[in-house]
Amino acid sequence: MSTIFVRSVLGQSRRSVFAAPARLASTSAKQSTLKERLADLIPAEIENVKATRAAHGKKSFGPVIVDQLYGGMRGLPALIWDGSVLDADEGIRFRGKTIPECQELLPKAPGGSEPLPEALFWLLVTGEVPTQEQVATLSKEWAARSAIPEFVEEILDRCPPTLHPMSQFSLAVTALNHDSAFAKAYAAGISKKEYWGPVFEDCMDLIAKLPNIAGRIYRNVYGGGKLPAIDAEKDYSWNLATLLGFGDNKEFVELMRLYVTIHSDHEGGNVSAHTGKLVASALSDPFLAFGASLNGLAGPLHGLANQEVLVWLRKMQSKLGENASDEAVKEYVWSTLKAGQVVPGYGHAVLRKTDPRYMAQREFALKHLPDDPMFKLVAQVFKIVPDILLAAGKAKNPWPNVDAHSGVLLAHYGLTEMQFYTVLFGVSRAFGVSAQLIWDRALGAPIERPKSYSTAAIQKMFANKQ
Length: 466
Ligand SMILES: CC(C)(COP(=O)(O)OP(=O)(O)OC[C@H]1O[C@@H](n2cnc3c(N)ncnc32)[C@H](O)[C@@H]1OP(=O)(O)O)[C@@H](O)C(=O)NCCC(=O)NCCS
Known about the structure:
By secondary structure, the protein is mostly helical. It has helices spanning about 20-25, 35-55, 65-70, 100-105, 115-125, 130-145, 150-160, 165-175, 180-185, 195-220, 235-245, 250-265, 270-280, 285-295, 305-320, 325-340, 355-370, 375-390, 405-410, 420-440, 455-460, and strands at about 5, 15, 85, 90-95.
């Protein structure tokens, strides 16, 4: 992450608390809880934002062109989020750390080699690498908050199994707003300066309750018997895997740790992250805001692509059989494009190289399931699709994204129900959206209200200009 020095009004150099090197940052306040550590960091960051705005607030950093208004605001600088930054060539960094750096630096489960999502959340919220002990405390705290209200269980139990798991997920998360600490505090007249406290509590509850919601949806729709209880001695991913019925498979549990970590956040502008931020800017509580995020994630150009990839691969496999030739795969890819459809799992609005989240999953597959026939097909498609997308000449990025790989890993371990895949993406995305909502309220982010224009106004504006 680039270091930000700002000349404060007092003439002193001020440095973002998040620009501190991890070595220094992680030595401080080892024994604090996450909330205590956050409370320490907020005042300095409020001053840092004030100083940044005082020094640079009126400066422009790039023109807005009319195509951006019609083109989905692509590349328009419009949001602030310090938790993660996406570079077109390099991919995502979480508080300045690449995925391989997170895999190396963040605490792991005993005997495990993938980072614990608890640690990633701590990093997103504080900019610091937590200790093993802090991570264990967070696992316990989430386990203690994990129960969902009976009426939410009933809502899920009454959903027809034909209702898409993402719709069920969104219903349940929205209904959690019944017990929102923030909504209650707001109704009781809380001061603006205190917003972040109850929002933090809601976000902790939200993340903690997701394994019970996801597990219940999975078992209601696909069978698998009664939901086991959360084990307070185990980590979040172990509990998530267990509630889905895969907890006795150590490799699957490791996959969940990697999966949740890499799907957690992808800077602030993607549909799910931005939707959450936008809705929460109206001071809707985190459950309402994240429910909206999930509805965006459920679109096939965003999170649902992980379902679509496996549907597409299976169709290809049933048409071409196993061990299809490169020529046959090429023809199949072209037939998808000629039918006016997208190749799911390829392309990206920001990335211009292979997604490091794809590579992390590929490394996992090479380590644990190198001979899986579907992994071999994914690897074959990886060799073939980019050249075809380049030849077709439309996609700005011909390379695979995160969704091109995740389904194959889940299917390998027996989680074959493709319609459920985006729910796991949703569980993960709660980590990034929550971190962002906490900081937005701590920094007093205002209600969002960009300006829209009519086509007639654009034409008039440029009527007499070249
Ligand atoms: C991710 C995605 C929505 C980004 O969209 P974008 O920013 O508009 O992408 P581009 O600017 O490269 O799009 C330019 C054109 O190439 C097409 N294109 C982009 N990716 C494509 C793909 N994988 N297959 C076929 N066509 C693709 C777009 O549909 C668009 O066509 P149009 O001009 O007819 O509308 C797009 O790449 C896509 O649909 N990918 C497949 C779905 C997917 O994997 N989504 C998960 C993303 S993490």
